[in-house]
Specification:
Elements: H1 8-19, H2 25-32, H3 36-48, H4 61-64, E1 68-76, H5 82-89, E2 95-100, E3 107-113, H6 116-127, E4 132-140, H7 148-158
Antiparallel strand pairs: 1-3, 1-4, 2-3
Helix pairs in contact: 1-7, 2-3
């Protein structure tokens, strides 16, 4: 897989889009002193190269009543059950992220819940999936770092 060649203008465009995916191209163009057409062409180039894949919306889950976060490590009875278990996990909307992992767990996932009782019910649903032998849960006390821009800037410096 070949790397996408990016210049400083591309970096600045990505920086602004990570900060606000809904920023108009005209606003980006004004800040960078280039035309909106140039921004459009560059973003399209990055989309065509699959560097940019869609855009996302950040919700304030606390305001929605879902501030409880837990991480659940899943032990499988047999590793060949991984795909089946992942399909069942995707049926549970409160499981927001799942990774196949090495080490202690076969699968590691993040759940969002209203409170501890709701989280317990979600974890029990996970435990009930055929192929899951047991789970281990860690409660997130606070999300201290969630910064996509720091990684992006590091990657750009390494290029």
């Amino acid at each position: 897989m070949s790397k996408v060649k990016l210049d400083e203008i591309d970096h600045q465009i990505l920086d602004m889009l990570i900060e606000n995916t809904r920023i108009p191209y005209t606003d980006i163009a004004k800040k960078l002193l280039i035309s909106a057409g140039t921004v459009h062409v560059r973003v399209k180039k990055m989309e065509d190269a699959d560097l940019i894949k869609g855009s996302s919306l950040t919700l304030d889950y606390e305001k929605l009543g879902y501030s409880f976060i837990a991480y659940v490590g899943i032990f499988l009875e047999k590793t060949h059950m991984t795909k089946f278990v992942l399909e069942r996990l995707s049926d549970i909307p409160y499981v927001t992220v799942a990774h196949i992992t090495t080490g202690k767990f076969n699968i590691f996932c993040k759940i969002r819940a209203r409170d501890t009782t709701h989280a317990k019910n979600i974890i029990f649903k996970i435990d009930d999936i055929d192929g899951v032998s047991r789970t281990e849960t860690m409660i997130a006390m606070e999300e201290s770092i969630n910064d996509k821009k720091r990684l992006m800037h590091t990657i750009f410096r390494e290029l």
